[in-house]
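Hi Y.,

Following your request, here is the sequence exactly as I used it, all 449 residues.
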Amino acid sequence: MFDKVLIANRGEIALRIHRACREMGIHTVAVHSTADENAMHVRLADESVCIGPAPSAQSYLNIPNIVSAAIITGAEAIHPGYGFLSENADFAEIVEAHGLAFIGPSPQHIQTMGDKVAAKQTMIEAGVPVVPGSDGAVGDLDEAQQNAGKIGYPVLIKASGGGGGKGMKVAETPDMLAEQINLARREAKANFGDDSIYLEKYLANPRHIELQIIADEQGHVVHLGERDCSLQRKHQKVLEEAPSPALNAGERERLGDIGCNAIRRLGYRNAGTLEFLYENGEFYFIEMNTRLQVEHPVSEAISGIDIVREQIRIAAGAPLSFNQEDIDFHGHAIECRINAEDPETFAPWPGRIVEYHPPGGLGVRVDSGLYAGYSVPPHYDSMIAKLIVHGATRNECLMRLRRALEEFVITGVRTTIPLHQRLTSQSDFINGRYDIRWLEDYVAEQAAG
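Below is the corresponding structure, written out as tokens. Let me know if you'd prefer a different format.
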């Protein structure tokens, strides 16, 4: 096992990784920008190294500085968390080239799954159902029109190397196709340096269902159940729950078999998430995230498995510490992403935390690096906490979540806690009747008064 791990991230996920390491007897190295010198994970880590100024490009995305910090401190492995360099194949390759362990999948799998077209083709070859679409990236407008005609309108235009909703547009009719392709290409080029796009069938009312998997170097693959991530705004997840209230036992088993068989065939290692659209009883693969997910705690809650701990063990060459039949899924879990944003306009709201009182009690977990006096910097993602609640049933979980939201006190900045209080009181959510467009419609209705 490793003696020292460098955590190449910030915020709640850096603290989450630190805690797993310390419980395993592993020393930690925190890296940080000048804006994060007082961050909680920096305070708690055994060692810390400043890797640059506030802008991410000069700090958390600065590969030479991060690798140098690992070498100087004698770290044996690097955990990238999520975001930043977590799905950067070049980073993973450089880490390994310097004799360090990358706590994640191989650079080859990161590269393949980072290209949405290549990922889709790889999954087709592995027998995974996909959304009907173009065979690969489309070239000129004539090729796009031919593909769109075969797929059927409306069509979804997606950036080949994209994610997070960037470079994604909808053409509802043939007359809209050229304009929407141009918009998607410009957005993709600006965000990813690659303007290649592909087409998919636009599903009317799907749910976003994802499967958490873990695989070791010895070829063992298990899944930790599905998560329902359908509550999204601008393609960004707001609330996740596990298991999905939309699936029955047969569908759940089918999804697990599809995912594990595909991962086994790929020879994949470490943690990963297969994401699907689900509509009318059918699953359609859309992408794979080759990293730890923000919403991994809900899978931990229903499975009892510490995913970060397993990631570290696998990277050290150890086999999985359990088999599929060892996992006893129990209860229901919901995660609310708490952002430093205005709950009405969603405008970012950085600033100094005056009061901080997280909720507690049975089945309540808060992942956050906040404390009274901490200043939320304006340079990074606005998520400042995750509230995860577990209960024996979905109804018990929901009642506990409402109570926890009432207890959660954060002052000095505006947060999205009031939004979650409203969402969890809506009858559609209470009854599990929502899809990936429900939250956008709800926000629009609220704004209209």
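Residues 132-201 form a domain with the Dna Ligase; domain 1 fold (CATH 3.30.1490.20).

Thanks again,
Q.
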